[in-house]
Design a protein that fits this description.
five-stranded antiparallel beta sheet; four-stranded antiparallel beta sheet; alpha+beta
Length: 283
């Protein structure tokens, strides 16, 4: 291949600026990783660091190290919300620390699931933050249907009534209707970017039907409690370089009906949830 030939195909959607900055970005990541390692090693896990097990949508291709964590859904009078566990104080490594965790279908669901990519610095990540758990619409142009909503509108069940037929000309129609939203909104910090999806496949996963009967028992049990009426949600931060990917946003081969990150072609499948592990960064 000639040295000046672009190795990234046009259909990949890869941002052209990446070629020019990837070197510096990689060096920056090394420095940040080193600092994070030191911080993790010198901070009590209860203060917001340490190894954590989570359930997320599966990474199926690309350079990202793992999937993105799932957020348990709650429906309150038709309004969509994310579940945030009650805060407890525990003794850990000789310190009294606050934690926010609960058993969801036999899996320990915790605020530490979301402590990566800088999200650990958001005010809403703190276990006792005064944060709004409502999913608030973020009509950023990703999905044309969301132009009907104003930024900050609560997402409701009624917004997704056509989820069994919805399509946007990419991949197959009828796999579900997605939305971009914000979560854990506070008066003094930025909210977490999330993606919401209502799909007929979600109910099948939660019930272990058909091809989903092979899901690990603890993952299926988690999904039975973490999803409702075909709704699921996840923290929308690519675990590679922290971009915000999207479900059914690209014709890139193999990504048409999945979640695609255009920066470095990482692909995630919301219909193959898995259990994983990573080192959560300290708050």
């Amino acid at each position: 291949m000639p040295a000046d030939e672009d190795k990234y195909p046009e259909e990949s959607g890869r941002r052209r600026f990446v070629k020019g900055v990837v070197g510096s970005a990689t060096l920056g990541a090394v420095a940040a990783g080193t600092a994070a390692s030191i911080d993790t090693a010198t901070s009590a896990p209860g203060a917001g660091g340490g190894t954590v097990e989570f359930v997320g949508i599966e990474l199926t291709d690309g350079p990202a190290p793992r999937g993105m964590p799932i957020i348990p859904i709650q429906i309150d009078g038709g309004t969509l919300k994310g579940y945030w566990p009650e805060v407890e104080e525990i003794e850990q490594q000789g310190r009294t620390v606050k934690v926010s965790e609960a058993d969801v279908g036999g899996i320990t669901y915790s605020s530490t699931w979301f402590q990566y990519c800088g999200v650990q610095k958001y005010a809403g990540t703190a276990p006792d933050a005064d944060a709004d758990n409502t999913f608030l619409a973020k009509p950023d142009g990703t999905y044309e249907w969301m132009s009907e909503l104003s930024s900050g509108d609560p997402l409701t069940v009624d917004d997704f009534t056509d989820y069994k037929e919805w399509g946007n000309g990419i991949g197959k129609s009828g796999l579900g209707k997605p939305a971009m939203a914000n979560w854990r909104n506070t008066s003094d910090g930025r909210p977490m970017p999330i993606q919401v999806l209502r799909s007929p496949e979600v109910s099948k996963m939660a019930n272990g039907e058909g091809k989903y009967s092979s899901l690990p028992g603890d993952v299926q049990s988690f999904l039975s409690e973490a999803t409702q009426d075909g709704f699921m949600a996840w923290l929308d931060k690519c675990t590679h370089f922290c971009c915000v990917p999207g479900f059914k946003t690209s014709d890139y081969p193999g990504a048409e009906d999945k979640v695609y990150c255009q920066c470095h072609q990482s692909i995630y499948d919301p219909f193959t949830p898995v259990k994983g592990q990573f080192v959560a960064l300290p708050r």
